Amino acid sequence: MATVLMIIAPEGFRDEELFLAQEELEKAGHKTVIASLVKGVCRGSRGGAATATLTLAEIEVENYDAVVFVGGVGSKVYFVNRDALRIAQEMSGQGKVAAAICVAPVILANAGLLKGKNATVFGSEVKAIEGKGAKYTGAGVTVDTNIVTGDGPKSAGLFGRKISELLQAHG
Q: N or C: which end of the chain has fewer CB within 10 A?
């Protein structure tokens, strides 16, 4: 099965968007690896915690089949982060799955991946992705080629299932 890189903020990632998506991916037999700006315990905005085993600078995309940028207010630290943008561009450039939920699709937009693509995002960031050429769908989850976007915590389970389906189709 696939190995999925899940990138979370060191503080303020959205718990459900990590844990529910991760649960769906692992239920389908995929392995998940958590990365952040720092190694160690990262805190979610709802009181949860997850341990990052890698920093973004250490990530070599050839070791992964997909990248998932988890949302939450903390994920804004990645909007213009050089490593985050590089990872998104390299994953997509290699035809691998690039996914983001909540406000995190802005990362994909800033990396140039949403130009001309159908995508969704948390309501506060619609203009940000449209400004980079995305076609906002307003759906809970949108899949366009190898890109999966979700609008927030209520769509986290479906988001995880859609990523899993895409990985199985490519696998």
A: C
Domain range for 140: 3-170
Report CA-CA distances (Å) from 117 to 5, 73, 104, 162. Answer: 22, 24, 16, 17
pLDDT digits (tens, 9 = 90+) for 85-142: 999 999 999 999 999 999 999 999 999 999 999 999 999 999 999 999 999 999 999 9
Total domains in the fold of the chain: 1
Buried (b) or exposed (e) across 87-105, using 16+ Cβ within 10 A? bbbbbbeeebbbbbbbbbb
Token digits for 123? 């309501």
Which CATH number belongs to the domain containing residue 117 in this structure? Answer: 3.40.50.880
* CA gap 53, 73 in Å, rounded: 21
Predicted model pTM: 0.98
**What pLDDT, on the 0 to 100 scale, is given for residue 31?**
98
The letter for the amino acid at 12 is G
Greater model confidence, 91 or 171: 91
Distance, C-alpha 160 to centroid of its chain: 10
Distance CA 92, CA 39 (A): 25
